[in-house]
Design goal:
OmpA family protein; 60s Ribosomal Protein L30, Chain: A; 329 residues; alpha+beta; 7 helices; 6-stranded antiparallel beta sheet
Length: 329
Amino acid sequence: MSKWITSVVLKFFVGVIFFVSPQVDAAEPASDIDFIGRYPGSVMSAFAESEFDSVKIPLSVNEYKKAENFQSITVEGRRSVRIYDVPNETSTLKVFRSLEKGLQAAGFETKLSCNGENNGCGYFFLRSLMSKQAIESYYKYKFKEFYNLNTGKLHIFSGKRLKDGKNYYLVMVVAQSKYARVMQYSLDLVEVQPLKTESLIVTVSKMTKDIGESGKVVLDGLYFENDSAALTDVSGPALKIIAEYLNAHKALKFLVVGHTDTKGSYNYNQRLSQQRAQSVIKALVDNYKVNAESLKGIGIAFASPKATNNTKSGRSQNRRVELVQVEAF
C-alpha cells in the first residue's frame, strides 16, 4: 500500500478522538492500518494482505423480501484486512459508534451504516456480501462464529475516502454472535488501483515464445493471499490461459516452481514456495482438467532471484511462479 502523508493514526472513544503513534506489537501478526488504528484495549487476532483483489462494497442492506433492491459497487485494488478482539467491552454499539466517528474524522464519507438488531443489517447480509473465497480466506476461521453473526449483535459500516487523488473504500463489521465469548471487529480496506502493467496475465503466445527460447516462463497473473498458498479469485483468467497451453502440449512435462523474496527464513520460504507451486497444480488439475502426471511442483524460496531484494519493486518481481520444461521427473 502506498504510504500516507500522515504519520499518526486514530484511536477512538465515543465522542473523543485521540492521535497516537501507530501501534506495532511484536506479539501480534501485523501492524495497524496506518491511518485508522484500533479501538482502545483491542487485540489483533488476524490479518491479510492482497496485492490485487476484487471487493464488493455495500451501499444498502440486503433485505430478505426485497433482495433485488440490494445496492453495491465492486472495486479492485490492494486489499488490507485486520480483525481485532475486544475482550473488555460488552456494548457492540459503543464500539461501533466510536470507530464510526473515528473513520468519519479520518475523511471517510459514509455509504452505509446499519445496526443489526431486528435484522437492521439485512438477512444473512455478510454471506450475501462476501464472495466464497473471501469468507474462506479472510473470515471463516478468524472472525468467531462468522456464519452465526446474524444471531447476535451486528453492525456494518462502509465508506469512501479520497486522498491525494486516490480512492479508498472500507467495510467495517462489529459483531458478537450469541455463541462467541468475545466481541470482534474487522476492517477491510481497498486502495483502488488498476492491475499494474508488469503484472498483466500471461498469454499463450508468450508461453510458447518463452518456453521455446529459454525453456521456462513466468506465470504472470497469479495472486496469493499474504503468507499463504491460497490463490485469490483474480488468478482465474491466468489459470485458464495456462491450462489452455498445457492441454495443447500434453506430451510435455513441466516443473511448477515457486519463488519468494527474502522476507523471513529460508526454511519458511521454501515451504511457502512449495505450497504455492502445489496450489497452482491443484487448481489446474481440479478446475481445468490438466493432466496431473505432466506437472511436478517444487519450491526454491529465494534461491533464484529475478531482481534485487533491496527494493519493493524487486521483491515483487521475485515473488513468482514459473513453468520449466523438463525431459523427465
